[in-house]
Amino acid sequence: MNNFITKAFILSIITIFYNLAEGIISVYFGAGDETLALFGFGVDSFVEVISGIGIAHMILRMKYSKIVKQDKFEITALKITGTAFYLLTAGLITGSVLNIINEVKPETTIPGVIIASISIATMYWLMKSKLKAGKALNSDAIIADANCTKTCFYLSFILLASSGLYELLKINYFDILGSLGIAYFSFKEGREAFQKVKSGNLMCNCEH
What we know:
Layout: H1 2-32, H2 36-64, H3 72-102, H4 110-137, H5 140-169, H6 173-199
Helix pairs in contact: 1-2, 1-4, 2-3, 2-5, 2-6, 3-6, 4-5, 5-6
């Protein structure tokens, strides 16, 4: 049992550091190439880091006792996560409108294609590994975290599609549509974070 808890904790640490690296790279290229979809994807990754820290903290608690409710640290992490996702949603919608008005076009979206492709493979592996550990531990919380990883998986496909189509056709609306797709999922993640705070339990409704 302890082996699976250790594995779940290692997976949560991998998630944190991967999202941190992905966020830095995505924001750097997103800002430099003026691609809002990649920039938003990067900011989303930073928010996932906060969420991941809350999950890692929860798994550490599982090592020493059976847990049935969130503690103050996890509640605070959820509130920060939810607020950040709502801010990201507003920022992406505003940015999309401004890009349409100012006819802003990305210089290139090739970094988005590369980052999204790597993210798809990574998130699929993390999702399956977390699900396996969660089932072995009979932990609703870890299974829910695995399901929440699906969101990052879907976001990666949105980024891949919008970046790939823009690079092929050079129509800036594809980047804007990608941004709005990310905004949609960010809003859902924000809402779910606050729902989890309100319910007080460990399970979250993350299956999109």
